[in-house]
Specification:
Layout lengths: L15 E3 L3 H9 L5 E6 L5 E5 L5 H9 L3 E3 L5 H11 L6 H10 L5 H9 L3 H25 L2 E3 L22 H23 L4 H26 L4 H9 L5 H13 L7 H10 L1
Length: 274
């Protein structure tokens, strides 16, 4: 696995361009479950996720020792808890502010926070946009710390055989939409076949993840429409120190663990107590 060394004694590490898959990298930074390990391929920019108990341990060891892969350090549960605290004062609805404040107090904070926002569509979209901005800050800082420069990912067009009529004609929007539709239909069929082999708990996880992807896509669309001035406002809030009362709540939530996004330390404490 690639290390963040200095590339020599006292020398500055050479910057390396990587065609980053931002969506996959964002998922990796957000998922801090202790059994999940994510790696960035420095050549392709793809993110590989290895789950303990599912992946072959020997394969995991090979990936961890491969210099083409760099392990991704996800954002801690405590930091993501602070994001919720910083978002609540941005909510205009005082009743919603009160409900969100109560939701993040104690065990299950992340799940309760999400459940409260389920009934408030616009604020839910704002939350996903706010969280995506915070994740982007962490991702860019991580890339910079490891001397990695994100570049645009290459687009590989499907070439028609030389001499064919399609080779000299541009693809129409109708044809492109048809291809995407057929591809989506194939994926839906594959997903349905996989669902037949899963149990109730696994289906619940798949459904929850699908809902998250859907909500995040809507949030990104919302963010693009309302990005004017948001960077400056969020930067001001980022610079504020965590209030003492908020720090106590974060400590309380981390000590008790969380049903949805537990930290590695909380998992270890739970295991040792048993």
């Amino acid at each position: 696995m690639a290390d963040a060394d200095n590339g020599g004694s006292g020398g500055k590490q050479a910057m390396r361009e990587v065609p980053v898959d931002w969506e996959a990298l964002e998922d990796a930074f957000e998922n801090n479950a202790p059994e999940v390990h994510s790696y960035l391929h420095l050549g392709t920019g793809e993110v590989l996720r290895v789950v303990d108990g599912i992946a072959d341990p020997e394969m995991h060891a090979r990936i961890a020792s491969d210099p083409n892969y760099m392990r991704i350090d996800p954002v801690s549960s405590r930091e993501q808890y602070r994001w919720m605290e910083r978002f609540i004062p941005m909510v205009d609805d005082e009743e919603l502010q009160r409900r969100l404040t109560n939701a993040i107090d104690g065990k299950g904070a992340f799940r309760r926070f999400k459940d409260v926002l389920m009934s408030y569509g616009p604020e839910r979209e704002r939350w996903f946009a706010f969280r995506s901005e915070r994740l982007r800050v962490f991702m860019e800082a991580w890339l910079d710390a490891h001397a990695l420069v994100p570049v645009a990912r290459p687009v590989w067009p499907t070439e028609a055989p030389p001499g064919s009529p399609e080779a000299s004609q541009p693809i129409s929007q109708e044809a492109l939409a048809g291809r995407r539709g057929r591809s989506a239909e194939t994926l839906r069929q594959q997903l349905a076949e996989l669902a037949e082999t899963l149990g109730a708990r696994d289906l619940e996880k798949v459904t929850a993840f699908a809902e998250f992807v859907k909500a995040r896509r809507a949030a990104r669309s919302y963010s693009h429409r309302h990005d004017a001035g948001s960077g400056e406002a969020s930067g001001d809030r980022e610079s504020r120190e965590l209030p003492k009362e908020g720090a106590a709540k974060a400590e309380k939530a981390e000590r008790s663990g969380d049903e949805e996004e537990p930290t590695p330390s909380s998992r270890k404490r739970t295991a040792s107590s048993r």
